[in-house]
């Protein structure tokens, strides 16, 4: 049973957790709430704020051996999508904010990202390797409609004939179909679309400000129709929430044209454990303890899992059932499909913005 009345409208997290790097913390007191009620004021306006930041670099080397990418870049920190399970929430604490509501409402915007990317790609020492946009937060989150930083970065990748990967769950990616088709003509682009459920009810509570499932399937179909390779991330799989949908999801995305699927089993590291626990008791109170215990079963009795090689796939009987089901889905629906390896050979002559004659 879903209990939407207890939720802050349009948000995943229902609280601001304490920032572990701060000695002091604050709380919303009952007398303040009573004052707001008497004065007819809202204690929280629940509005997103966009804050400009100016990093010195934009391309990050990924040290984690089980992430599946060597380099990433993020145009935004924080994400309006508000996915309750998002592993990136903890990173917002490094910026001085909470992993809870702040992550969804304090969005840091890197307007100089295209310039920094161009500087990076022109380095004499740089050897082309796929750079993935959205290693941390979604490059097509709602803020992108206003700032268009992702589009500008795609123009840079196209200019320098450099391979790029995209991870998103937003249909806004179709806005940039012209650039994606041009990149695909030289095998310079691959897209990873995240689909966590086929149920709109489930999607709305897990990922409150994301594109609908229907629109995401349309994205997979349209990109595939233009020869743009698409992998779908069925991630994360959460026991007793979407674990029963693995085969139907795999079938749907395969029929839409996806060339492969990937998955992770949910893990709730750092502040995410507290945020998720608070959320599920408010949103799905009838199955809250069952879900939490099954997540713990996948990670040695804890919600937290950091061990490389284990953290993404889990261990124990429930994790085995999930992993076996995904393997079955791959054999059943993706037997003769393969994601192409992107082209890294074209970039070198374009470092100065044009082809070398000799």
From TrEMBL:
| Record-linked PANTHER family | SLR0285 PROTEIN (PTHR43432)
User: Which keywords has UniProt assigned to this entry?
Assistant: Iron, Iron-sulfur, Metal-binding
**SMART domains to which the protein is assigned, alphabetical:** Elp3 (SM00729)
Q: Say which domain of life the source belongs to.
A: Bacteria
Pfam families referenced in this protein's UniProt entry, alphabetically: Radical_SAM
Q: What is this protein called?
A: PA0069 family radical SAM protein
Outline the extent of the Radical SAM core domain.
65-311
Is this entry keyworded Iron?
Answer: yes
């Amino acid at each position: 049973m879903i209990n939407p009345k207890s939720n802050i409208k349009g948000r995943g997290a229902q609280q601001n957790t304490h920032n572990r790097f701060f000695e002091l913390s604050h709380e919303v007191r009952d007398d303040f709430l009573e004052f707001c009620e008497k004065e007819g004021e809202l204690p929280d306006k629940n509005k997103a704020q966009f804050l400009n930041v100016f990093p010195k670099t934009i391309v990050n080397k990924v040290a984690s051996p089980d992430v599946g990418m060597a380099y990433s870049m993020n145009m935004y920190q924080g994400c309006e999508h508000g996915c309750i399970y998002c592993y990136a929430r903890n990173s917002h604490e490094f910026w001085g904010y909470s992993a809870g509501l702040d992550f969804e409402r304090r969005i840091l915007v890197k307007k100089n990202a295209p310039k920094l990317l161009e500087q990076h790609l022109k380095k004499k020492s740089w050897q082309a390797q796929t750079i993935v946009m959205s290693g941390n937060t979604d490059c097509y989150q709602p803020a992108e409609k206003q700032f268009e930083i992702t589009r500008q970065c795609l123009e840079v990748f196209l200019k320098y004939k450099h391979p790029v990967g995209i991870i998103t769950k937003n249909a806004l990616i179709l806005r940039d179909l012209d650039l994606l088709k041009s990149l695909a003509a030289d095998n310079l682009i691959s897209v990873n679309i995240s689909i966590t459920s086929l149920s709109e009810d489930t999607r709305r509570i897990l990922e409150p400000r994301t594109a609908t499932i229907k629109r995401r399937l349309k994205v997979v179909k349209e990109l595939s129709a233009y020869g743009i390779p698409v992998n779908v991330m069925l991630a994360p799989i959460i026991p007793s929430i979407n674990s029963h949908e693995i085969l139907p999801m795999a079938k749907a995305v395969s029929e839409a044209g996806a060339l492969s699927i990937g998955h992770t089993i949910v893990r709730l590291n750092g502040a995410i454990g507290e945020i998720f626990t608070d959320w599920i008791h408010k949103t799905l109170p009838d199955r809250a303890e069952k879900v939490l215990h099954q997540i713990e079963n996948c990670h040695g009795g804890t919600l937290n899992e950091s061990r490389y090689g284990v953290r993404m796939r889990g261990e124990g009987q429930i994790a085995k059932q999930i992993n076996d089901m995904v393997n079955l889905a791959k054999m059943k629906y993706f037997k003769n499909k393969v994601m192409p390896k992107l082209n890294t050979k074209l970039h070198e002559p374009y470092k100065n913005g044009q082809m070398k004659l000799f």
